[in-house]
Design a protein that fits this description.
54% of the residues lie in helices and 0% in strands. By secondary structure, it is mainly α. It has one domain. The relative contact order is 0.14. About 23% of the residues have low confidence.
Length: 199
Amino acid sequence: MRYRLTKEGIKARQQVRFEMSTAKTVAEDDRDNPEDSRRPATGVKGSPLGRRDFKAAVVLRDGTAARIRVVLFGREATDGDPVTWVRRGLPVTGVARLQKKLRVRESDLLSLIGMSTQTFKHRKQEHEHLNAIESDRLYRLARIEARAVEVFEDEKIAANWLKTPNRALGEKPISLLDTEAGTEMVERVLSRIEYGVYS
């Protein structure tokens, strides 16, 4: 499926292309530098994406980073960077906010985070923060949601895309977000779409 972008969206995409082409973190093709461990992972060998799929590090723009912060913290004042947030533990209220953005059932989101319904209810009642592992997974989901909104320029379209089976991935993008490897695959497909590549 192809997605049409507005003139403003096209202009924004062109700016992203320039930024990403000049960023040092942009990955090269595997065959050009196979031993460079500093590049983002290129996916699982034999995956539907193949060995020569599009690979580029995701550079979060200011609006995307701000969206992640709002989804995770709401109106709460916060400082530091994502690493600090995860180590401290994200607020449990971020789960409900992300659930609303993704338009999924609570149980499905908790499954991706690796948390039982009972534990979640206890955390809410006691106003406890998530632990580091749960926080890392919640941040990962929020990052992909924000990235999808950045690419599609529409919150509803982004949520629907994440829940729709994707031919390049072999399954629904959201179902891959329980692992870092799966998340990287989804990020690469989003970058392909952003660049106008059929995915």
